[in-house]
Amino acid sequence: MSVGMNTRLHSFPLICVAAAAFAVGAPAAAQGTLPEAAEQARQAWLAHNPQALVGQSPSLVLQIPGADPSSPVGRAQAVELLRRYLRPVVERGLDVTVIREVEPGKGFVELTRRYVVAGTTELRRETLFLGFRLQDGRWALAELRSAP
After folding, report:
1. pLDDT in tens, 4-42
2. Within 10 Å of residue 56's Cβ, how many Cβ atoms?
3. Which domains does the chain have, with CATH numbers?
4. Cα torsion at 129, 138, 75, 28 (round to 10°)?
5. In what order do the strands lie in the sheet with 89-103?
6. How many other C-beta atoms can be found within 10 angstroms of the C-beta atom of residue 135?
């Protein structure tokens, strides 16, 4: 490499740090491939970060305790409902069990969750079903349902 090599070498660590920060902070609901979106959703859930989970999705169908499953809710309301749902628990494990594109532009992810309610020791299990839609080349979370 010729002119500017020193500049590039000195900026390389900064570029790596910036790229890592972007990847960690990237919304789960907006990844390039469905497996990437599934992993980002898993990480956001484990971190109890509903903003990263919802991402830039304009609305979301939520079927969790405390949410009306009959109609989609806006981004801010989805974040708050998820925050309340996640607050009293400690995650013990979360595994991606299914990733499937059910039709072009529509994806399905199933997560198996293990958790305890804070202050208890009883291990509980739950299955989470996430529906994604492909929008502008990115998978956006459109639906989240829980089942015991």
Report:
1. 444 333 333 333 333 333 333 444 544 689 999 999 999
2. 12
3. 28-147 (3.10.450.50)
4. 60
5. 73-74, 59-63, 138-147, 124-135, 106-117, 89-103
6. 15
- In one-letter notation, the amino acid at residue 122 is E
Q: Which residues contact 79 (CB under 8 A, 6 or more apart)?
A: 50, 51, 54
pLDDT in tens, 71-122: 899 999 999 999 999 999 999 999 999 999 999 999 999 999 999 999 999 9
Identity of the amino acid at 109? V
Write the CA distances from 16 to 19, 31, 109, integer angstroms.
5, 19, 30
Q: What's the CA gap between 9 and 59, in Å, rounded?
A: 43
H, E, C per residue of 58-84: CEEEEECCCCCCCCCEEHHHHHHHHHH
Give the pLDDT score at 16. Answer: 33
Q: Round to whole Å and give the CA distance between 111 and 95.
A: 5
